[in-house]
Design goal:
Blueprint: E1 2-7, H1 14-30, E2 35-37, H2 65-77, E3 80-90, E4 93-101, E5 107-112, E6 118-119, E7 122-123, E8 139-142, E9 145-149, H3 158-166, E10 171-175, E11 179-180, H4 185-207, E12 210-214, E13 217-220, E14 228-231, E15 235-237, E16 243-246, E17 253-258, H5 262-270
C-alpha cells in the first residue's frame, strides 16, 4: 500500500482550505498514493480554542458537500480517502467525524471520534458528542487493505487501538490537530511531542500493525490568548514501531510511505501478543477505577 498523509496550514477561509486539500489529494494520487488521509478538521482553523456558538455554522452532514467532492476524486483517481469533517448529524447534534471513501467513490462509512477532550484551548466537549455507533471502533475493507480510523485524542488510548486492531485493522489512521501552547514550548515541548509519538509507536508494536498520524502546522490564534502552535511532524510507524516516514514541523507536505502489508502477519506471528492475550482475566478493564 502507498499511503499519503496531508499536512497543511489552515486559514479562516474554508473554501481555500478545501481547495488546497483537494489539490494535495490529487498530487498524492499522481505520486502513486493509493490511500490518502487528511488532517483533523482540515476545512477550518482549529475552532475549538474557544466556545463560540457561531462555529456550529461550520458543520455539515455526511454525506454532504465535502464528501461529495472527495467521492468524485476517489472515483477519478481510484484512491481511498479518509476525510475529517465537522459533522452535523441532526439539529443540535454534532460529531468530530471521518468519512471513509473507497476507491471508486463509495462512502463506506463514518467514524465518530470516541474520546472528546476538554483542556485549555481544546474545548471539544462544547462542540462534539462522543461517537455512539455500534460498534464504536471498527474496520473498513477497502480496495487496498483493512483500515481502522481513530481521531486525535483517541491516540492516547490503548483500548481504542486494540479494539480496532481486533476488528481486523492492518493500519490505524489518525487525523490529528495537536500542538504546543507557546508559553510551554521551551520547557515542555520536546517531552510532549516525544510522548505523543511514543504512545502511537507502542500501538503499532502492541497490535502488530501500521500506525499513521496526519497533523496540521501553523500558529493559530483565533482569540486574544496565545493560541496554539501545531507541531506537524506527521509520521508513519511500521508494526515494529520504527518510524518509516516523518514530516517537518513547519512545512506543508504530502508525506508518502510505502507499506509492505505482509509485515503485519510477520509481526503478529513473531510477536504473538494477540495470541497470548488473557481475555479471561481482563474484566476490570471496563471499570473506571479499581477502588
Amino acid at each position: 500500500m502507498t499511503l499519503a498523509l496531508l499536512q497543511q496550514e489552515a486559514s479562516n477561509d474554508t473554501e481555500d482550505n478545501l481547495q488546497r486539500t483537494v489539490a494535495a489529494t490529487k498530487q498524492a494520487a499522481k505520486e502513486g498514493a493509493q490511500v490518502v488521509c487528511t488532517q483533523e478538521l482540515f476545512t477550518t482553523e482549529y475552532f475549538c480554542q474557544s466556545e463560540d456558538h457561531n462555529n456550529f455554522k461550520l458543520a455539515e452532514p455526511i454525506p454532504g458537500p465535502t464528501t461529495k467532492v472527495f467521492q468524485e476524486i476517489a472515483r477519478e483517481e481510484d484512491i481511498v480517502v479518509i476525510a475529517s469533517i465537522f459533522e452535523q448529524r441532526a439539529a443540535g447534534l454534532y460529531h468530530n467525524s471521518a468519512a471513509v471513501i473507497d476507491a471508486g467513490g463509495e462512502l463506506l462509512g463514518i467514524y465518530r471520534k470516541m474520546h472528546i477532550p476538554d483542556d485549555p484551548l481544546y474545548y471539544e466537549k462544547f462542540y462534539f458528542t462522543p461517537g455512539d455507533k455500534d460498534p464504536g471502533f471498527c474496520t473498513w475493507h477497502t480496495k487496498y487493505g483493512r483500515i481502522g480510523v481513530l481521531i486525535c485524542w483517541d491516540q492516547w488510548y490503548p483500548e481504542a487501538a486494540r479494539i480496532t486492531a481486533l476488528a481486523g485493522a492492518e493500519i490505524l489512521l489518525y487525523p490529528t490537530a495537536i500542538g504546543w501552547h507557546p508559553a510551554e514550548k521551551a520547557t515542555e515541548g520536546n517531552t510532549q511531542h516525544a510522548a505523543w509519538q511514543a504512545i502511537q509507536r507502542s500501538h503499532a508494536i502492541g497490535n502488530g500493525c501500521f500506525v499513521a498520524a496526519a497533523n496540521r502546522i501553523g500558529h493559530e490564534k483565533p482569540s486574544d490568548d496565545d493560541g496554539l502552535e501545531f507541531w506537524g511532524q506527521s509520521f508513519v510507524a511500521a508494526p515494529s514501531g520504527e518510524v518509516i516516514a516523518n514530516a517537518s514541523t513547519d512545512k506543508e507536505e504530502v508525506l508518502l510511505a510505502e507499506l509492505n502489508m505482509k509485515e503485519v502477519n510477520v509481526a503478529r506471528t513473531h510477536w504473538p501478543f494477540l495470541r497470548d492475550r488473557r481475555i479471561d482475566a481482563y474484566e476490570e478493564i471496563t471499570r473506571r477505577f479499581l477502588d
